[in-house]
Amino acid sequence: MLPASPPERFAVAAFDALLAHIAIVDADGVIVAVNRAWTAFARSNGGTGNDVGLNYLGICDGAQGADGCDARAIAAGIRAVMAGEQRLYELEYPCHTPTGPRYYVARVTRFEQDGAHYALVAHENITRRKLAELEVMALNAMLERRVEERTAALEATQHDLQRLNTELSARNQELSQFVYVASHDLQEPLRTLGAYADILRHRYQGKQLDERADTYLGHITEQVARARQLVRDVLALATISEEAPREAVDLGETCREVWTALKGSEDAQLMICGPQTVWANPPQMRQLLGNLLGNALKFHGDTPLHVELKAREDGDLIHFVLHDNGIGIAPEYAEKVFGMFQRLHGRTPTGGNGIGLAVCRRIAERHGGRIWMEAGEGGGTAVHFTLPVGGPDDREGQATEVEKTEVEKTGSERGLSSS
Q1: Domain boundary among 125, 147, 172
Q2: Would residue 210 count as lying in a domain?
Q3: What total of structural domains would you count in the chain?
Q4: Which tens digit of pLDDT belongs to each residue from 217-230?
Q5: Which segment of 100-104, 125-129, 165-169, 343-347 scores lowest on mean pLDDT?
Q6: Could you give the CA distance from residue 104 to residue 73 in angstroms, rounded to a whole number?
Q7: Has this prediction a pTM greater than 0.90?
Q8: Cβ–Cβ under 8 Å, residues 120 and 55
Q9: Which of 1, 236, 364, 408 is the residue whose CA sits 20 to 30 A from 283?
Q10: Same-domain check for residues 35 and 84
């Protein structure tokens, strides 16, 4: 094993091998030694490179121009370290050239040699790190500026939305009031007109009026009834609100109640299968089923009417299918019938005002579901609609056991439906 070499053997070579520009300054500020990097840097910047013996403090104190402030700060740091006021002094400063930016960090420490104190002054090139830091700072500033701009734009947009929502709420309230007042004001003259037409028909039909006059009175009565039903339908459509109170509703039981109220023909049949509990507004559910079952009763074929309500869970919704064996619908009209005032059968005893299915769509969408129509398998019509399952606290396991009942009801149709 080779004997250990004394550190002094490598001191000079290691001193010159350092990349930092290093000078050793005595207590008076005179440079007593420099390394090779210091000499090379001095020569590259117009100096002789032989800085030993120069008073570094005097040079720094007398510096002028853009670098003068940093030079004087370094001189003050050297004095503070030599006086023992601080152990280490550091300063990052720019030192640009015509060819590009440069950045350095000056570090000053004190050491003792042969009973005297000296300052070791090192200048290290940190250009790459500083440029990276400046780039990050510029990016951060740009991002902060963009965030401020986006925030200001978002606040302006939110302000506009709040204003528009306020205006929309006010207009909706005004519209609701208008619809209510208009429906009341429209129905009053219609009731009067219908009453006088009934008086004329009962007092003079077959007596002082001929057959043509009787026919005219019949037309007047019929159109008054249609107009009154139209006003009620428009009012029903306008008053459907998604803020309506909701609760757990057994749609199967509601369907049976509506079917009973409609009193279908003697041989009409209703079957209900699958989970039926939904989270909905009960009056709107009765209106929805009333319109759909009413259509099934009105547009049945020659065979006895058979209606089936099936259901299956689909995530947070229940998918219902109301299928009948009626006259059916052509595929090209399956979407059209959900529009306002859309009739496929004209103004006939079976034709409605064209609002019933629009009401159904409004109800389904207000509950977060949807509704559509398809041709049924084996004929007839299949109306699909989805509604939220159960309630907010008991949506899991809310489906009831599968049931299948057949109900036969008698009588003629009543006015719970319109289409």
Answers
A1: 125
A2: yes
A3: 3
A4: 788 887 787 777 77
A5: 343-347
A6: 14
A7: no
A8: no
A9: 408
A10: yes
